[in-house]
Amino acid sequence: MSYNPVERHRKIESIVVQKRVGGDRKKYYRFRRDHWYGGIITADCAGCGLTCKFCWVRKESILEGRESGEWLSAEEVGQRFLKLMKEKKVYQGRISGGEPTIGRNHLFQVLNFFQHKRLRFILETNGILIGEDESYAQELAQYPFLHVRVSLKGCTASEFARLTGADPCGFHLQLDALRNLKKAGVSAHPAVMFSFSGREEMDQLYNTIWKIDPILHSEIEKEEVILYPHVVEKMKRAGLKYYSGHLPDKGGEGSGSRGRGKDVWPEGRAEDSEEGKRGKGEKGKREIARILERGARNAEPVPIPGEKAAETDHRPSIPGKDPKIRIKRGPVSSGLETTEAVRTED
């Protein structure tokens, strides 16, 4: 039974946000330093309005807002960021984990805290609420230090529904988020989960994003499922088959997918050396840095010594069209071998 993604976001908001006259408080469960984007301080918030079957968050209770965490005001969140930034000498931050656009007033209070502090802030979102209400994007345009990463769950409405269990209308809201952000002049780019898509679906999405904006088309970030053991098990229970994925970085769970760990075939055969894995992580960071700095786009990264060339993608090609995506892929398995491969990385 599908659910309305907007209504679910509102429901989760009632659980993870406390409305207060002096400023709303929201539940957070972790603050940390990550190596994505060349180094960033991350605040993991609780609660998400989608139930993605490949989500890297281990506990459903965190996504549902039932997990214990800290209720923090925007001021407290900002101070936590500044403390870690000073300690780690990293001057950009992001909110991840759950969905940061849940709790609109709280989010804008956090952004107000960072106004005029000469920092960069990255908002990682599924875009549902930004697509549902154009004024959300218009308000985000007030913050020139902000960049928005919209994570699309699949390449089509039917894929979105299969991956999230939500009504297919949610996919169109994600695309509307890109339109609204572009119209409002907000720095943004789309990140697309390609692990479950065929070539035809990928080509269709590229054409759709081109129609929204050619620049966004050139800045598409390619996401692959992270094969943590609990994610593999979750996909197995859901009967979800994938074309490609990668093992997690040494950073462990919660590192997200901004960059690359070790690419694998679903039967568990790792294709890259340790040096190559590190190289792919560096590639991801360089790509996002170029987007954020408005620098050269689509430039090929310098090859990392010892890194093996990417294997050919075995998805069926589309006659007369040059495939735009190159992602490793192998025959789909139950995921048991992959689970063992992941465990060797821990």
Detail the topology: elements first, then pairings.
Elements: H1 5-16, E1 17-18, E2 25-34, E3 40-45, H2 60-63, E4 70-73, H3 74-88, E5 92-97, H4 104-114, E6 120-125, H5 128-132, H6 134-140, E7 146-152, H7 157-164, H8 169-184, E8 187-193, H9 199-212, H10 214-218, E9 221-223, E10 225-226, H11 229-238, E11 245-246, E12 263-264, H12 274-292, H13 336-343
Parallel strand pairs: 3-5, 5-6, 6-7, 7-8, 8-9, 10-11
Antiparallel strand pairs: 1-2, 2-3, 2-4, 11-12
What is the CATH-assigned architecture? Alpha-Beta Barrel
Counting structural domains, the number is 1
* Percent in strands: 15-25%
In terms of per-residue confidence, which ranges show pLDDT below 50 for 5 or more consecutive residues? 259-314, 317-346
The global form is: globular
* CATH homologous superfamily (4th level) name: Aldolase class I
Distance between the termini: 36 Å
Instruction: Output the radius of gyration.
Output: 19 Å
Name the helicity range: 25-40%
Name the CATH class: Alpha Beta
Largest sheet: 9 strands, mixed
Order of helices and strands: HEEEHEHEHEHHEHHEHHEEHEEHH
CATH topology: TIM Barrel
Q: What structural class do you assign from the helix and strand content?
A: alpha/beta
Tally of individual helices: 13
Mean pLDDT, nearest integer? 78
Oligomer: single chain
Tell how many strands the DSSP assignment holds.
12
